[in-house]
Every structure is written in structure tokens, then in C-alpha cells.
Write a structure and sequence with these properties.
The chain has 317 residues and is mainly α. Helix content is 82%, strand content 0%. It has twelve helices and no strands. The chain has helices at residues 2-5, 9-34, 39-47, 67-87, 91-100, 107-136, 140-189, 194-204, 208-221, 226-237, 240-255, 259-316. Helix 7 (140-189) packs across helix 12 and helix 8 (194-204) crosses helix 9 (208-221). The longest helix has 58 residues, at 259-316.
């Protein structure tokens, strides 16, 4: 260890490159040994049930412009996705978050995005580590820590970006709900039924909540009862205000109460909740603004007010 610390930067760079190359060769060997076919894998094609649907009804599969490269990377990507699945959040929770974010991607596709982000982070970390070793003579262990931290940042960063997308979409849904409720009340007051009003609003509006209403109308048109379709809407979004909104519409449909009054009351409740949340946010921001005022501006003001008097006293002495 002491001999490695005393070497020049070029020798340290060579040592890091050699270590990375040796690690890469070991990973290639481990991957080839792990890909050896087992008895279960050899018997699976003969025991798997053939699909009964017609090929004309299957959705077209997007082809890559580099099919050979795709076939070469597919096994490695599969193993990387399995590793990320063990290290990341549970699949059920991830599926709910993808639905709440409004994304149509599957869990496997999101895991693949996490793998890509991790590889990009490792690449950036490796470039930074080589620069640190060559320019500042950083120890190779510290450089390896930088590479691992960069890869972990890429893995966690993609998950945090999904959480941010969920939060922003929930804010859009909550902001659009009063307007949608008023439009539904107008349509119902004009003589439309509940399903007709939902369909009209979905056809004439745009936004995150309009997309969810289109999905609800599609579920109802496919044979699902409207109350169950509204329950699916509440489950997909995960918002309490939308759950109350869907429950109120379902109860009004089942009991025959005036739907327009229920929708207007729901819109007023959502607006009141928005005003209350805005007041609470303003109170929190006001308390946060006290920190720079008390600890930065007030001491500087006191110093400017007291310093002239202290200077005069010192001159008199």
C-alpha cells in the first residue's frame, strides 16, 4: 500500500486501468459461466403452452435498428434488470407509482431505464475518477468509491425522478378537478346522464384528469359498471380528493340523488381544500423566511448600527 502511494500518477493510472480490465475479464467469465443452460431451461420450450390467440391480434413489437446488437445485449440487460429488481423498490409499489405518474411503461421497462441511468452514472464516475487519479494523484480506493457512488446516484436518481413525476401529476389532477366537476355539473344540469356527461367532458377537455376520465369512460363502455369504473379511477390516481369525488358520484348514481348538486359541492370542497393548503404552504414559507432574517440580516443590521458608536468610544479613549 505504501509503495502504491509513492508512485507517480502515470503508474497509478496504469494500475487503475489494469484493475478495471481484470474486473471486466472476471465479470465476463462469471457471466459466461452463469449463462450455461440448465436442465430446466432445456426442457422449458417443450413444456410451455403455445399461445391460443391469432398473430393478427397481437400488438406489433417495436424493432430496433440494430437487431444484432439488441440480441447481444439482451442477456446482459436481463441479468442487470434482475439485479436492479432485487436492489430497488418492490414491483407492486413501482407498478402503482407508474400508474399514478400516468406512464404506460411496464415495470421491466422502468427497470431497464434504471440500468441505463446506472451505466451512465458509472461512466461519468469512471471518467471523473481517472481525472482525479491523473491530475491530483487520488488513491485508487477513493476513485473506486467515486465510481460506485456515481452508479448508485444514477440508480436512485431515476427512482426519485419518478417520485417527482408522481407528485407533479397529482398536483395537476387536484388543480383540474374543480373545473372538471363544474363542467360535469353543467352537462348533468343540461339533461345528460352520468356516463354521457363524463364522455362529453372527456371529449372536450384536455389534461391529466381528462385522460383519466377517458380511461373511465372506456372501462364503462367495455361493460364494467360505472361505479366500478369510478373506483378504478380512484385506485389509479391515489388521491384522496379524487377518491371522495368518485365515491360521491357513485353514491349519487346508486341512490338517485341530484348529481349536479353533488358535483358542485365537490368542486367547492376541492377549492376550499386548495385554499387551505395554500394558506398552510404560505405559513410554512413565512417560517422558513425567518431563518435568513434572524441569522443573516439582523446580525448585519446590528453590526452596522453598533459599530459607529464603538468607533467613537474607542477614539475618545
Amino acid at each position: 500500500m505504501s509503495a502504491l502511494l509513492g508512485t507517480d500518477p502515470s503508474t497509478a493510472v496504469g494500475a487503475v486501468a489494469g484493475g478495471v480490465g481484470g474486473l471486466g475479464l472476471w465479470l465476463v467469465y462469471w457471466h459466461l459461466m452463469s449463462r450455461r443452460p440448465r436442465l430446466d431451461d432445456r426442457l422449458a420450450p417443450y413444456l410451455r403452452l403455445s399461445p391460443s390467440t391469432s398473430k393478427l391480434l397481437r400488438s406489433p413489437v417495436a424493432r430496433s435498428p440494430f437487431p444484432t446488437l439488441e440480441r447481444l445485449i439482451a442477456p446482459v440487460m436481463h441479468d442487470a434488470v434482475s439485479l436492479v429488481e432485487r436492489l430497488g423498490s418492490p414491483s407492486a409499489d413501482l407498478e402503482r407509482r407508474l400508474a399514478r405518474a400516468g406512464r404506460r411503461a411496464t415495470v421491466e421497462e422502468f427497470r431497464a431505464e434504471q440500468v441505463v441511468w446506472t451505466v451512465l452514472g458509472i461512466t461519468c464516475g469512471l471518467a471523473l475518477a481517472l481525472l482525479l487519479v491523473a491530475g491530483r494523484g487520488t488513491h485508487p480506493i477513493a476513485a473506486a468509491v467515486v465510481v460506485m457512488a456515481a452508479g448508485l446516484t444514477g440508480l436512485v436518481g431515476r427512482d426519485q425522478l419518478l417520485s417527482r413525476q408522481v407528485r407533479l401529476r397529482e398536483e395537476r389532477l387536484q388543480a383540474e378537478l374543480p373545473t372538471i366537476a363544474e363542467l360535469l355539473a353543467l352537462a348533468v344540469g343540461a339533461g345528460e346522464g352520468a356516463l354521457g356527461a363524463l364522455e362529453r367532458v372527456a371529449r372536450t377537455t384536455h389534461g391529466a384528469l381528462a385522460d383519466e376520465i377517458r380511461q373511465t369512460v372506456a372501462d364503462a363502455r367495455s361493460g364494467v359498471p360505472l361505479t366500478h369504473a369510478l373506483e378504478r379511477l380512484a385506485d389509479r390516481t391515489g388521491l384522496v380528493v379524487l377518491a371522495r369525488f368518485a365515491e360521491a358520484i357513485a353514491v349519487a348514481i346508486e341512490r338517485g340523488t341530484p348529481l349536479a348538486d353533488v358535483l358542485r359541492a365537490q368542486a367547492e370542497d376541492v377549492r376550499e381544500a386548495g385554499r387551505r393548503e395554500l394558506m398552510e404552504s404560505g405559513g410554512r414559507k413565512e417560517l422558513a423566511m425567518m431563518v435568513p432574517v434572524v441569522f443573516l440580516i439582523l446580525p448585519v443590521t446590528v453590526v452596522f448600527a453598533v459599530f459607529p458608536g464603538l468607533s467613537v468610544l474607542r477614539l475618545d479613549l
